[in-house]
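sorry to bug you again but im stuck and you know this stuff better than me. below you get a single protein, a line of residues and a line of whole numbers that encode the local backbone shape. mainly i need to know what kind of three dimensional shape the backbone takes. anything you notice is useful, everything is just below:

***
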Amino acid sequence: MKHFRLLALGLILTLVLGSPLRALTLLRDPDIEYALKQIASPVLKAAGLSPTRTDILIIDDRSLNAFVVDRSAIFIHSGLLLKMNNAAMLQAVIAHEAAHIANGHLVRRPVAIRNARTAAGIGAVLAGAAAATSGNGQAAAAAAAGASNSALRLLLAHTRAEENAADQSGMRYLANAGVDTNAMVQVMEIFRGQEALSVSRRDAYARSHPLSSDRYRVVKRLAAGYEGRAKDSSNADYWFARAKGKLSAFKRSPKWTLNRAGEYGYKDVKLMRQAVAYHRQSNLKRALTAIDGAIATRPNDPYLRELRGQILMEGRQTKAAISAYGGAVNQAPRNALILGSYGRSLLAGGQLKKAVQVLEKSRALDGRDARVVRDLAAAHAKLGNRGMASVLTAERYAMSGRLKDASIHAKRASDLLPRGSTAWQRAQDVLSAAKAASKKRK
């Protein structure tokens, strides 16, 4: 999906289990991620988790699933987000996953997939996510040669006891956050009847989160007990419209979007969706008219300005894109994704040294974005810094699980960089990860 800045991670089990499973793709968009953080914040606080330290990330997968691998992020499939009818339903999903974190259900997970700090370590964490999102323990076990079934089951699925505990905690978090607890019942109704299907036909969420009629009845009873505690939801409702509205505009056909652009009742969301649809139809003039209308409605919104930069950049208007992204950065100077887009535009415009500065700042704020690493490597290569370009390329391959390619570039970087330097040590980290993975495959 070239219009929606996809981050192809190639998430595999090489670093964890020594064998590939399948690739995943993260959808990294600053507007959607900010919207999800606004929606999740009251629920995370109720769970005793920090909204600034627990990210809500979107996996590009139309199946219905959500999962956690460590304390740093809750992963939600795009298909599940698009299936939610309102903000409260999405908050119910987040509350349930937050309960798995708060209740210590991740303690059983392999230590190797937590607390990653290096590029190779990030690949390991996301490799664990690839296993978790598959949902099919039997298929994963068949794919992961040498991995024990028990270890995979621990990684892939929650027990019924954990689900019951997460239901009760999640409902409490919703009630304490002032969210309508009936939303959890609505979510469960989507998955009712799944356990009557064969494993291969169940939704991924039902496979990894076993649902029973007893669980459903308990949740309904809890919802009734919390009735009347829901508070004003206007903020969550607005950001839900932003997140789902923008995601659907990029995922569905432009004609479909234009016919439904105003369905949420917010003028700026309508104009933003129209801008995306016209952009995907390569109608730059109408796309800019629509996004400028949205910006006029919310002049202090950096995410609308960032979308304007994307439209211009992909419309090959590099100079104007640099200006648009620069305006977004002025309004959100510490947003890693906006900084990454700004750095990319500077690179395209030939402002190499400034591009490196901006991209380095972006990477320091968020080390998950392989596009930033790719752009940094390109900028250093153009500046003649071959050693830095090589180590960055090695790290990018490591993040996607391509450790054989990563090893080649890490060896090249080791020969070009001063021995003992920070960059040289980063190359050694990649080489060590590649060597460890090679041993597991033997």
Notes: The chain has two domains: 6-225, 252-441. Confidence is low (pLDDT under 50) at residues 5-23, 110-117, 124-156.
